[in-house]
Write a structure and sequence with these properties.
about 450 residues; alpha+beta; Alpha-Beta Plaits; 4-stranded antiparallel beta sheet; two-stranded antiparallel sheet; 14 helices
């Protein structure tokens, strides 16, 4: 009985003297959001982090909440003195309040390292029933401080959550790259415009087409002039032959009609074949020319003096040769102009290609910078994918100590301890209490017994 009563009394007094602990709790909902989309400079589309079950993301957020840096920031936000500024609701505090006892000294404030550890030990963060909900609870001697600590921790967690999921270096990198490519684009466009102005370039393909057309036209004129020169030389030879005849003024002259279109075409074909070196075709064309000349032979009466005609033919020949020379000079300039245009076209394409590359990169980084700018604005406003389901409120009923339960447990312990102690004393005390004990241990007959009252 002594052991039973002492156990129950000790547990009861200990429960009355123990500082009551209150619990405040809050619940957070973690859902997929913009934090799972990262803007990467090396990709055209944002990278998406896939949380197929959601457990990994919840565990990551729990690790952020329980981080030591957040605990330190929470204690610094509250202040060590404020954390321990709560009334003493124990039996000792009640006696002091009633004036029975006097408070001899102020409450001792532990070192700040112990405060950090105490706050961390009393903080519980866990997933809620295999869902995307995080359960946060905090135990402290003051219910108001416990609720305030939870709500402050949630605010600090939101800021840390945004900070963890934000990469300021990417934002600055995209901004610098956008400005860099904008500058390059401006410089390349200026170089392109300067090149066009310097070389009077409007449309190089069109200029080349016009130049090739003129070259073809001049070459055609040159061939025609060469044919006319041959015809004029033939006329001169015929006239010189006539001058060798003394009766030239009274004779009829037989000559070839050199203005025949067929003869002109055949002679042009002959020139081309001679340039190509096709002997078989050359002989065939010469035969055709001879036959055509026979057909075009006409008899004419010389109306003018052969000398006058010869003089006119020579003058015409000189004019044709001068024209041929001029055409050759003009034709000779066109290959150089074409070569210059080809070089200019190559340089122009390179400048246009550089403008296109710079413009593409500038648009890419500008688009990514605008995306990062939107995310950075949302970060400043602390817009996150985590929301508070239930904020912490003070609960005035303590969770520890549970006085009734402690007294009941103390009673059971005292009862079992008292019974055990009674059996132990009975076992270790060497006293014969019954006739059977004497018969069992000594084997001697019992002569008499005395009543216990005697």
């Amino acid at each position: 009985m002594t052991l039973f009563l002492s156990t129950v009394i000790t547990v009861a007094v200990g429960s009355l003297l123990a500082t009551p602990i209150y619990r405040a709790s809050s619940r957070l909902l973690v859902k997929p959001g913009r934090e799972d989309i990262y803007v990467l400079p090396t990709r055209s589309s944002p990278a998406i982090i896939d949380y197929s079950r959601g457990v990994e993301k919840v565990n990551a957020e729990i690790a952020i909440i329980k981080s030591s840096g957040l605990i330190v920031e929470l204690v610094e936000r509250f202040g060590v003195q404020q954390l321990f500024d709560f009334p003493d609701l124990t039996l000792k505090g009640w006696l002091v309040k009633k004036g029975i006892f006097k408070e001899t000294r102020e409450r001792e404030i532990p070192p700040v390292e112990r405060v950090y550890k105490s706050v961390q030990d009393n903080l519980e963060v866990s997933g809620y029933q295999m869902s995307n909900v995080i359960y946060i609870s905090f135990h402290w001697p003051d219910p108001v401080i416990a609720a305030q600590a939870i709500n402050t921790l949630v605010d600090l967690y939101f800021a840390q959550h945004v900070k963890v999921h934000t990469d300021p270096h990417t934002y600055n990198l995209l901004k610098d790259q956008a400005e860099k490519w904008e500058k390059k684009l401006t410089e390349s466009e200026y170089d392109l415009e300067s090149f066009k102005r310097r070389h009077a370039v409007t449309s190089l393909p069109q200029q080349k087409t016009i130049l090739l057309g003129k070259l073809s036209e001049f070459e055609s004129q040159k061939k025609q002039t060469e044919n006319e020169i041959k015809e004029t030389e033939g006329t001169i030879a015929s006239l010189e032959a006539q001058l060798s005849n003394p009766d030239e003024d009274s004779q009829l002259q037989e000559t070839v009609n050199q203005a025949s279109p067929m003869l002109a075409a055949l002679r042009a074909k002959l020139v081309e074949l001679e340039l190509q070196g096709l002997k078989g075709e050359i002989n065939r064309v010469k035969q055709m020319i001879a036959e055509e000349e026979k057909k075009n032979q006409v008899v004419v009466v010389s109306g003018n003096s052969p000398k006058d005609e010869l003089l006119k033919a020579k003058v015409r020949l000189e004019a044709l040769k001068a024209r041929e020379k001029n055409l050759k000079l003009q034709i000779a300039t066109y290959p150089q102009e074409l070569k210059t245009l080809n070089l200019l076209e190559k340089e122009l394409k390179e400048l246009e290609r550089q403008v296109a590359i710079n413009e593409t990169n500038y648009k890419l980084y500008l688009t990514k910078f605008e995306e990062a700018k939107i995310l950075e604005t949302m970060d400043r406003k602390k817009i996150a994918s985590v929301s508070v389901i239930e904020p912490a409120v003070p609960i005035m009923k303590p969770v520890k100590p549970r006085k009734r339960l402690n007294v009941m447990i103390g009673g059971f312990l005292g009862l079992f301890a008292g019974i055990g102690m009674a059996f132990l004393i009975e076992f270790i005390n060497p006293v014969f209490r019954t006739r059977e004990d004497v018969d069992q241990f000594l084997g001697l007959p019992v002569l008499a017994t005395l009543p216990k009252e005697k």
